[in-house]
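Supplementary Note 3. Input sequence used for the single-chain structure prediction.
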Amino acid sequence: MVIMYAALLEGMTRQMVRYATEVSTGHLQIHRQMYIEERDPYAILPWSYLYDIEATFPEIDAAPRLYASGLASTSLSSTGVFIQAVDPDREGQVTQLFEHVRKGSIDFEPVKKSGLAALRHRVMIGAQLSKNLQIEIGDELILVTQAIDGSIGNALFDVAAVLKPLEPNFDRSGVLMSVDAYKDLMYLEDGFHELAIKLDATANLIVYQQAIARHLEALSRIHPLDSLGGPPAVRNWRQLSVTVSDMLDLSKSMIWIIGFIVVALASLGMINTMMMAIYERTHEFGVLLAIGMKRIWLVLLVLMEASILAVVSAMVGSALSLLIIKLILKNGIDFSQLMPDGFDWAGIVFEPVMPLEVLPEHILIACLLMYVVALVASLIPSWRIGRLRPVQIC
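The predicted structure, written as discrete structure tokens, is reproduced below.
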């Protein structure tokens, strides 16, 4: 039970990390300080910063993003929405966002509508937003927002795709568009709010974070930014996804805590077994004491028997758990019939299939807990052996 619980917890945490780094945030993100603190839409970084970072660190992939809030309307209803703009080519290299499409296709190319002089841009929306607005693929969506220049930005878009639930807030109110569409809607000439970065090796996360931070500091001296937006800041995915980071730290302690509880309950059965074994052999123990065996050797005999039981049970339990995980549950625990789109917990979306990942330390922890708790449990029958009086027994 301990090994299976640890494998399930490890699978969940790995899935959380994968969603945090490969689907949404990336490994690192760059913002200006005022955007972090107040979501200031004017706290933007110029495109020259992106090109300079790509030239300085050619081994990394970077994707710019822009954000805004607005009002989405159809012929039937309207609601507040969260607008996100991405560079389709760069975003596909950093995250797996475009692989989570429920309906439609990834197509940001503007289309020519009959009777219109200008091209019409396409957008992708969240699944719950599609349901709330009763809008499907090919329908028209009106977006109204406050543009960067202070005017009212509004435009008509075609819905190209509906995304699977990736993040609860985006699923309820998210509208995804291209950077070009965002520029036309918001009247923005230059700049982006966020730069998501993907690394080849996560082991170098802190090294790259510090190196990029130093480079941005030097770049700010060469190409100064306005003082209102604050300096650029680099944060890693643990700083961005605090819930995931806390869950990873908590999972290490939870394995020990849950493992101790489970093994402690199992030790009650061992105490009963050892007590019955001692009760049935009380006469033999009395004879051994009568012929001169020291009590310490009897106590060690009981402890050795408990140790053998613990080792055998740990081996059998480990083999049984590995057999179940590798054969019966090798594809994970499938909840797709009940939750086809998965479920969210603490702002993190989980897939409907829960994978199980076994690590060597999980087996070691379970066996160590089994052995230690078994020895502690055997102290009670050992204490009874040490108080036996041969005269009364024999």
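The first helix runs from residue 2 to 24. The chain is about 50% helix and 20% strand.
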